[in-house]
Amino acid sequence: MTTQTSPSGSDPVPNRIHARPVPRPGRLVAAVAVLVLAAMAANALITNENFRWDVVWLYLRDIVVIRGVMWTLVLTFGSMAIAVVLAVALAMMRRSDNPVMRSVSWAWIWFFRGTPIYTQLIFWGLLAVLYPRLSLGIPFGPEFFSFRTDEVLTAFWLALFGLAFNESAYLAEIVRAGLTSVDPGQTEAAKALGMKDGKIMRRVVLPQAMRVIVPPTGNETISMLKTTSLVVAVPLTFELTYATSAIGNRTFLPIPLLVIAALWYLLITSILMVGQHYLEQYYGRGFGTSTRRRGRGKGPAGGKQAAIAAAGTVQQDVNKDVTP
Amino acid sequence: MSAPTDAPAVPAGSTDMVSVRAVHKVFGHGHDAVHVLKGVDLDVPRGSVTVILGPSGSGKSTLLRCINELEEITGGSVVVGGDLMGYRKDDKGILHRLHPKAVARQRSRIGMVFQRFHLFPHMTAVENIMEAPVQVRGLTKKAARQRALELIERVGLSDRTDHYPAQLSGGQQQRVAIARALAMDPELMLFDEPTSALDPELVGEVLSVMQDLARSGMTMIVVTHEIGFAREVADHVVFMDDGVIVESGPPSRVLDDPREQRTKDFLAHVL
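Output (structure tokens, whole complex):
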């Protein structure tokens, strides 16, 4: 301990211990070794002419690249938004008393999780070939209206819904896990107050489930950011990966353009991580920052109670304020 | 024992707040079936306090949960405030299950306090109390808040209004839970072992709030192991064992002069 403590008199601990720490030479050696390796890697990146950092800088802000970023963002957030709505519906269907609802939800998740996203996107791209006209009507009965598939469902919409349907299957399981994580006592308490099922879900269960749902959903969003590069299968050819590789092929400089794509993905991911942090904070309100414990255990938790007592937010003599 | 469909029509103006008749409750089916309540009859007069005692597994909590429809009864009938709980009886005497909305409406008139509080952890104390009046009764937030602040004062927690449940002690949480139940202006309050999850030094504050409530004329059914509370506050003590009511009467009779051997054995253990 090398830090200077205040002179005796103001220190509430008169016999403060100033012991020498355990010598750990291995730590220093490991840290130096890792730093040297990191410096070598940085050197290899910066000094290698083949990366053409001048080209990276030149095309980083190219209008085609920026437009690619925009399409990637639209596809990511658009498909995630649709997927979240679908996933909540699917998760509730899985918990429904109605066996038809349960089966449909199960089959949807089974299919979209069980086949590769790339294959799904190719099929969506072929929709107009498989069904040149789409119509709405009663099966084997009259039709209400119909339209040409390729006129209405453009590559963008097919890509958007293709990504969303696939993602909804994964998200549905995340939402289901979140709903299951909420103490059944919460539903009972809400029921006892006379709340109806829909209100209980919206006001009591979902807000608490969000605490469990948000972290993996952030993960899925970051994953989706990069999955959007697969929409070339539809084919949709505006997003970041396709745009940069097209420039790379045209200019015979594939490597710097790959670096550009990587840098943009990194930047967006970093921003998403910040957003996720704030979302987690919002849905974590009312729960201790470090503990994930729920009101399942009998009685107050020792650790949390101790922390609260230390924070001075709880009156020490708890019986003092009871009405006589 | 009367047939399960024999729901008694309680005359209007009856003094009984709760009338439980021949209630049976079976959990599960076939081999896994557990017969928890085996024909329970219980009358709770308006404005009275009934304490239910009994060993764990005797069906006390289940009986309480059957009264406010948290559990569907298997046989018999439960009438609260003149309303048959959970069913509608037509002219031919056939029972029809009520729509969940109607059941929710019936429940909204009965307050319940749980052993483990079950406060909503993502809402502050005052928000917990406001929740049902706003969401169920359609009160404005302003009016609900006004009322919530009165109730929180009544349970002695005016300085904890904006604390989250995790920032409150067990006793404080349970008092907020009582205020939350009272916010719906219930005709009947059910307490399911309200002090069993509390540290011993926190039990008193909750019991004293309950005592005040009893004094104000609230009809209460309390499942508890607090014999002292039963002796002091109860008008009526019921001893349950193995799914039936073994003995009941005024506290002085049941607690000090039990007739049944099972009651004597139980009291010998807890006293």
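Residues 200-215 of chain B form the longest helix (16 residues).
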